[in-house]
Every structure is written in C-alpha cells, then in structure tokens.
Amino acid sequence: MASADTTASIIEQAAEWAVEAAHGDMPLESRAMLGAWLAADRRHEGAYVRACAWLRATEDAVVGAHSAKDSLPTQDQQVAAPAGRPLISYNDNEGYNRSAPHAGDGQSPGTPRRLFRWTGRLAIGGALAASVAMLLGIGMPAITSFWQGSAGPSGASAVEIVQLRDGSVARLSRDARIQVVLSDEARSITLLSGEATFDVAPDESRPFVVQAGQVFAQAVGTVYSVSRVGQSGGTVEVSEGTVLVWPRDERDQAVRLVAGGKVTLDPGPLTTQRSTTSQSRLAAPVIAQISLDNVTIASAVQRFNRVNRTKIIISDPEIGEVRIIGHYNANDPYQFAESASVIVDGYIERENGNIVLKLK
Amino acid sequence: MDDAYDKKAAWVSREIVPHEAAIRRWLIRRWGGAVDVEDVIQEAYYRIAKLAHVDHIENPGGYFHRTAHAVASDIMRRAGIINFTSMTQAEWSNVMDDEPPADQALQGKQELARVESLLANLSQIGRRVIELRRVEGLSRKETAERLGLSENDVKNHLVRGLHKVMKAMAEQDGMNLDEQADAEKKVEQIGKC
Lengths: 360, 193
Hints:
The complex is a heterodimer of chains A (360) and B (193).
Chain A: H1 4-23, H2 28-40, H3 42-71, H4 75-78, E1 114-118, H5 127-137, E2 143-148, E3 159-163, E4 169-173, E5 177-182, E6 187-193, E7 196-200, E8 208-212, E9 215-229, E10 233-247, E11 255-258, E12 262-265, E13 289-296, H6 297-307, E14 312-314, H7 317-321, E15 323-329, H8 333-343, E16 346-351, E17 354-359
Parallel strand pairs in A: 1-9, 6-8, 14-17
Antiparallel strand pairs in A: 1-7, 2-5, 3-4, 4-7, 5-6, 8-9, 9-10, 10-11, 10-12, 13-15, 16-17
Helix pairs in contact in A: 1-3, 2-3, 3-5
Chain B: H1 2-16, H2 20-31, H3 37-49, H4 60-78, H5 85-98, H6 104-120, H7 124-134, H8 140-147, H9 151-173, H10 177-184, H11 187-192
Helix pairs in contact in B: 2-4, 3-4, 6-9, 7-8, 7-9, 8-9
C-alpha cells in the first residue's frame, strides 16, 4: 500500500499532466514523457484519468457559470424548443400560455401520463438563484424558468394549468411557484411554494425529480401524491408504480415506495437539532424493513413473498441454502432478489410478473 | 492516445466524477481504515480507464461502486485478511440495492454544492484561463499574452487550482491521510465487525 506521501505526490503530478495535456500544446517530447510516466506505475494512470476528468468537470463548471452569467436573461433565444409542442413561455416574466391543451384531466389519448402531487409551502432562499446557475454550470443544456401561478381573481381553489416543454402538465395552486430545469438528461423541478400536481410525460431517459424542501421524489413510472410536512419534510403516497423518496443528499438511503406505500420524511432543519413539533417526529419511514441476519435465502424469500404480490421464485434449491445478511425494504422484492443473485453468483429473470432467482 | 484519453475523460467527468464523493463516503463508512481510500479510488479510475467501451454501462454510479468494491476486496485479499467477505458482501449488496437508478437530475442537485466549492478553489486567473480556452478558444500562448502572464504561470494557476479542487474533494469527505494510516492498524477489528 502506498504511503500517504506517494499518493499525494501522484495526485499532484497527475494534475500537472492533465493540465499539460489539456491546455498545453504538447510537444512530442512531452507526450513521450507522459507515456513513460503513465507506464511507470499503474496508479499513475488512474490518477491521470481522474485528474483529466476533474479538470474537465472544473472547466465545465467555469464555462457553465460563464454562459449562465451571459445568457440567463435571454435563455429563450438560445434553446431550441422541442418540436411540435404548444408551450408555455419560458420567460422569467410570468407570461405563459394559459390555454395549455391539457386542461381538465390532462389526459391525452395514447400518451399515458404519470400523476403525482407536491403540496406545501417553502421559504424561498437566496440559494435558489445560485442553484440555477450551478445547474447550468454542470454543463447541461438547460432551460430554466420561473413562473408564478399568479393569482387569478378566483379564490384559493383556483388552479392554473401549464404545460412544460417536455410535455408534462403542472397544475399549480394560486400561490404555487415552481422552477423547472429541463435538459437532455434530466427534468428537475423545484416546488418553491404552494401546491402542485404534476402530470408527468413519460421519458425514461430523463428522470423527473421533484424537490420540495429537503425531500426529493423521483417518478419511476408511477402515480403518486406528495404533501409537505413542516419546513422541510414531505409525505409521499403512491397509488401505482414505484417512487423513490429520499431526504437531502441521502440518496443511498432512498425509500422505494410501491403501490399502497406511504412515507413521511422530515429531515428537519439542517443545523439546529430541534425536536419541536410532533410533525417533525414523523420522520421515520413507514416502510417496513426486512432485516436478515444470516438466514437462508429460502426463508428470506418466504418472508418477502408473504408481503408482496410479486413473488420471488428460487429455481435451484442450492440457492435457497445460501445464507444472507442485510436490511432490505420489505416492499421491494426485486431489490432483495438482486442482491441475493449477486451473493450466489446467479442472476434474476422476470417471469410472469414474478422474479426468478437462477444460477449461472 | 490523447484522443482516447480525452474521450474517456469526458465520459468519466460526466458520469463518474459526480459519484466520487458518495463512493469515498461509502468506502470510509464501510471499510473504515482497512483500505487506503485514495488508493482505492485511484485504482477504480484506472480500471474504468482500461475499459474498452463504456457504452454498456447504464448506471455509471453503480458501476463505480462495484469497481471500488472489487478494488477494496482485492486489496484486503492481498493483505491476507480473510474474514471480510461475508460482511462486505452483504453490506455492499445493501448499499447497491438502496441506490436508486441513475438519475442525473438528483446527481446534478447534489453536485451543486460540490461544483460551487470546485469553483471556489479556483483562482480568478485560473477561472479566466479556462474561460479563454474553452469559451474563446485561445491557446496557452495566446492566453498568457492576453493575461500578461508567462505560459508557465498560466499552467501553474491551472495545476494549482485542479490540485486544490481534488484535494478539497478528498478532505471534505474523508478523514485525512494521516488518520487513515492510523486507522489501518485497526484492520483486524474492522474486518470482523
């Protein structure tokens, strides 16, 4: 194992080479030296790739910040609209087409839609503007917009329907304010205030993630509703399909909700650890965990099958005898089957809606 | 070679770099001081760089995870620590399973803070240098002339910035290398937990 010194100096040298390669007009001689350096130690190459990647990420950030600065006010002219869709205006000035075509139920034949809802209120911080710029900064070709479901003369129940450029429809309460960032890779929505129901146009290549407070929810082909709890929390209820819900950056702890599932997350304030209202005590996910402490896969499978409609089938008794350890969401047999398959060095297949564990 | 590296670097910077913080946290959390985290990460980059194709990787974050796990396992194995597989296998599976599928949207969100600190680690000049090259397409020589610096200064600003960025990245998530060295002595215990 390398000493700390060596690791640090490798990182330094790698940084130097990465810059040289990207920003220098590298003469042949330098290329040869780089080649020799890379060949000298396999860790050099890893460090070099990493440095190049970080350099590029840094450059992208700079370029993004630069172009965000330059182009934010005139975003519209720079970003080509997806063809053939009636659009709301993406100007910052609240002007948008109020006669979106999907008023009413927002259903158009032949276009299955996903429906979910965020509700609640949220203090709007200054961090927001920064986050917009930064999203651009990451180098996504992003469209940014703000608009307000500005109050009509009608009462509190009034709902404004707007169509997003990706074809999704948002229904906004009169005090609703959302921010939408669409790119080739993602659809990122922030509910700043009020209440919104999203009718999500399916597009698997661009995940639809809604943030309210410190809670994130990603539609994974789904019908679900979300409501805010307290300052930073939220409740997600799923009526169909699957939703991933997680607080803050704890994506690796995401709760996978399936039909009938409901979870309340309230990460609470970031700095102060107040345990004030009973609401913020609702923090614990309602999703049951199946905790396996060195039990056989066969008995674990029984437990999952007892509580899930999707059954796990063990194709080879040998698999059932292997012991397994870990915590799994009770409502996600697939998740469990996947890791069981890894442990037995097997694989899983979907058959008639069930999950079959097989040996390679 | 450079083209290949360049292409790979583009992919890696887009798909792998954003996961580095999470991987580092995971390595520290799950492997404690049993492995040198920076070594593992570097080796993981190496293995990814050695891939002939990356097109088949649908979930780069997961792939990075898996690779880092394999690297850490290899290191443990080489160090002759036997009693670690059952623990880490389960832990690993657990981690992998809980990870939602690729969602760049969130990744982007989480990356905001990082990118922000990334920019904060660059000097004004470093930033300008990058702008001049990437936005205006100037060569290093032209950049140096424009900024009234020597070419070497231009380079050094970038190297320093990049080094700072990577160092800050490692430090903010992990323990520092000294602590890690200390922690290495605890390998036995950690291996058995």
